[in-house]
């Protein structure tokens, strides 16, 4: 699993293009695609088969 911490990049891009509907949609999924430990984005997550942890 690769994690990428790009919170500042996302906020600055959203501020520049606040009228874009896509930038508002990404924020709805922000909690689902970030790691709860480091708060970076999960780029290529995998799930462990026997316990289903991601």
TrEMBL record:
Compositionally biased spans, kind Polar residues: 1-12
Domain of life: Eukaryota
Region (Disordered): 1-23
Protein name: Suppressor 2 of zeste s95
Native species: Drosophila melanogaster
Organismal lineage: Eukaryota, Metazoa, Ecdysozoa, Arthropoda, Hexapoda
């Amino acid at each position: 699993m690769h994690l990428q911490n790009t919170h500042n990049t996302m906020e600055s891009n959203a501020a520049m293009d606040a009228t874009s509907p896509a930038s508002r949609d990404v924020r709805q999924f922000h909690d689902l695609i970030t790691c709860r430990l480091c708060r970076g984005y999960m780029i290529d997550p995998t799930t462990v088969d026997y316990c289903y942890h991601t």
